[in-house]
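Design request, tokens follow.
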């Protein structure tokens, strides 16, 4: 059942650089791939050293007051020496009450500036860019972390056996406050040494849920037309730009589609991108899906609410060129004035090079492979390896009806949770200074990851509850 231990592919994939020697290995790299090692100049004037980026991934390493820790320092120092030109952090939250995951870093009247400075120093040791991703989890916050999630409208997440409670609709005053909080956190990021920021407007979190008519059923000026639904995102990006000034990188992560019937469509995306052109955005990261339609994990549309046409376009892109959203990036390229980054699915150096040379995108985002092989970018740039590891092909309950595409919802859910737990646990090990454990199977990964998440959520509860009276939920 735990396929990770006996997979032929897993056994044939060497640990690209032993974790204990990752920093030593990074000093020995001489880039030979002229395409991937070519620098990228952003509209604000900042230069990214090469075309490989560590995509944002939630870390879950914060302390009991949701501050950065020595675990962030260890992990990001390893990644800095791994060779990618750009690193984007996991989602740093603007609201301590509503977290995507126990262990999120939050910047919400909790101090922690020295810890942020240490994180930023470690994450930029080799001259790479390190950008802070800023987010609000919205309705996608499980009940053991958040008592009452927030959303544009009271539309619950229908997934994972009731793990998410029906959210409360945010008030107009709260939305305006959140815009200011995004800007404040961006200012803190700049002051503490992060070299840029990314506004998280994808994957069904708060800003993304406002864009979707499926989750945004408001009748005020924050809902209804696409212009109204996009107002929160656009106001936030403008406020962030004003907070950091014209010469500091500002990125946006945006869904190419929600892949959900009645949700945010690719046509909606193209219009929002055209509006973002006027907001001073330096890089657009293209993604897709949400917790109910997990295209971000490379899965086909499932269930009654799937947008089958959008899912087929994504599947075709994946079959032809590995990346989940590259076909959508090609469409967005015709509208976008800013450079594009595509994350999700890239594994071979050939596919990465082709995506750049075909002008479909400017940066290649790498996520899960860097959880186990932190030195992978160096190896790709030097030509030492041609392909990243594919543990998603082996960390499974089994094949066929026991695999990711099973017709049984419980089996699909267990496989998704197993893979998610596998990668989350690798980040925890790296943050603790240990080596990845590539033998973890899906069931063990689920148990260990959920146990860690629940223990962490209990530790942070006292701090989460200490919210100033002016920010308590309306009665």
């Amino acid at each position: 059942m735990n396929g990770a231990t006996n997979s032929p592919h897993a056994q044939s994939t060497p640990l690209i650089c032993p974790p204990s020697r990752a920093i030593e290995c990074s000093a020995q790299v001489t880039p030979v791939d002229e395409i991937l090692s070519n620098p990228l100049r952003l509209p604000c004037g900042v230069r990214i050293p090469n075309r490989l980026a560590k995509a944002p991934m939630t870390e879950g390493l914060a302390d009991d007051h949701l501050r950065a820790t020595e675990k962030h320092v260890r992990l990001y120092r390893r990644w800095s020496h791994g060779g990618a030109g750009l690193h984007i952090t996991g989602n740093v939250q603007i609201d301590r009450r509503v977290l995507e995951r126990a262990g999120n870093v939050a910047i919400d009247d909790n101090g922690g500036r020295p810890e942020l400075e240490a994180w930023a120093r470690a994450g930029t040791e080799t001259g790479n860019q390190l950008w802070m991703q800023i987010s609000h989890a919205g309705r996608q916050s499980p009940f053991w972390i958040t008592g009452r999630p927030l959303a544009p409208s009271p539309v619950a997440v229908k997934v994972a056996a009731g793990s998410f409670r029906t959210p409360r609709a945010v008030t107009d005053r709260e939305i305006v406050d959140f815009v200011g909080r995004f800007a404040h956190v961006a200012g803190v990021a700049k002051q503490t040494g992060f070299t840029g920021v990314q506004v998280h407007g994808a994957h069904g979190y708060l800003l993304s849920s406002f864009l979707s008519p499926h989750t945004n059923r408001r009748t005020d000026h924050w809902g209804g037309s696409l212009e109204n639904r996009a107002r929160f995102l656009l106001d936030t990006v403008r406020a962030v730009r004003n907070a950091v000034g014209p010469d500091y990188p500002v990125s946006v992560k945006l869904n190419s589609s929600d892949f959900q019937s009645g949700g945010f469509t690719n046509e909606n995306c193209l219009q929002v991108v055209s509006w973002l052109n006027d907001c001073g955005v330096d890089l657009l990261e293209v993604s897709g899906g949400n917790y109910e339609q997990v295209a971000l994990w490379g899965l086909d549309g499932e269930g009654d609410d799937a947008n089958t046409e959008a899912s087929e376009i994504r599947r075709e892109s994946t079959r032809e060129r590995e990346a989940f959203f590259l076909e959508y990036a090609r469409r967005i390229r015709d509208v976008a004035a800013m450079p594009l980054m595509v994350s999700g699915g890239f594994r071979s150096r050939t596919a990465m090079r082709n995506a750049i040379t075909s002008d479909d995108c400017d940066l290649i985002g790498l996520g899960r492979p860097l959880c186990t092989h932190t030195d992978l970018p160096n190896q790709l740039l030097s030509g030492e390896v041609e392909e990243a590891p594919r543990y998603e092909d082996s960390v499974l309950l089994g094949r066929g009806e026991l695999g990711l595409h099973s017709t049984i919802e419980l089996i699909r859910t267990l496989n998704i949770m197993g893979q998610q737990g596998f990668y989350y646990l690798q980040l925890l090990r790296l943050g603790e200074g240990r080596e990845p454990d590539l033998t973890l199977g899906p069931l063990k990964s689920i148990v260990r990851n959920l146990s860690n998440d629940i223990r962490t959520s209990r530790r942070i509860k006292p701090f989460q509850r200490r919210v100033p009276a002016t920010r308590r939920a309306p009665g």
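Comment from the thread starter after seeing the answer: thanks! Confidence is low (pLDDT under 50) at residues 1-16, 18-22.
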